[in-house]
Amino acid sequence: MSASEPKKNRLTYADAGVDIDAGNTMVDQIKPLVRATRRPGADAEIGGFGGLFDLKAAGFTDPILVAANDGVGTKVKIAIDSGIHHTVGIDLVAMCVNDLVVQGAEPLFFLDYYATGKLEPKAGVDIVRGIAEGCRQAGCALIGGETAEMPGLYAEKDYDLAGFSVGAAERGKLLPKGEVAAGDVVFGLPSSGVHSNGFSLVRKIVALSGLGWRDPAPFAPGKTLAEALLEPTRIYVKSLLQALKATDGIVALAHITGGGFPDNIPRVLPEGRGVALDLNAITVPPVFCWLAQTGGVAMHEMLRTFNCGIGMIVVAEAGKANEVEAALRQAGEAPARLGRVTVTDGAQVTYEGALAL
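Above: the chain sequence. Below: its structure as tokens.
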């Protein structure tokens, strides 16, 4: 064959960096994980062109559908660099389903999108294992997803994740309920750690500290730094749905994600209303103390970047605050009374006291 003649019958998709066989192997390995997320309304089988869900079989009569999508942010970079992949899937589910339950919706099903430079079935299965675990914690079915191998767009071991979830609430049961009123009581539910926001700053602080991912975590005895920072986001779905069934005194919920307190709490407040929070009532987990001290991060910056120990806000009708607190405790939560709703024509979130950083 001369140099000018085209090469025939030589190149394959694998030569271009996409391994179809690896993808098929991964699908076979994750099928049992997906089946484990079955729930009424979904048989949780994968392999078709679309996932199905039967609202009637799920017990709804006049539902409003609520949808949410999210990712894990640069927390995935720690998973990639450390080789610990089995927890970020929980984060992926949590970031979506927590946004559904704050609107009073029960998460029904979940789909994921996993894109990587080179598919490594073991890492992929670990990721889906975490997604399936998150779905079990939330009570929703994993009904489908997409795995995309994209050499040239991602470096070989790099990947990113996106999640999509749909929930439902009976008509008239959506939150916020009515109008949040002055005097309503604000509770905070504990977080499990950093959750899935602020990790670009976290990684900057780690770089400044000089620590490696396999070094002992200064704030979590018995764990490496990577293991401690990859602690998955808490999923509040089951406890909040239980509390919502037990009392009609919950008027609003707010998921504390990117933007912290000052950006997320106002999302459920009407015009002219604010909240006054007592920062002394927050038990700050050691990870936030380490981040603040190591990075020299000021308190106001901590409050607008991280959850600082409170992953969910519950606003209770003033006259039913004790009832709401009891319902939350019965559901397994440890609510802290953080303050009250106020009348304001200025900042919607104000603070008293200080975080114990």
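The chain has a mean pLDDT of 93.
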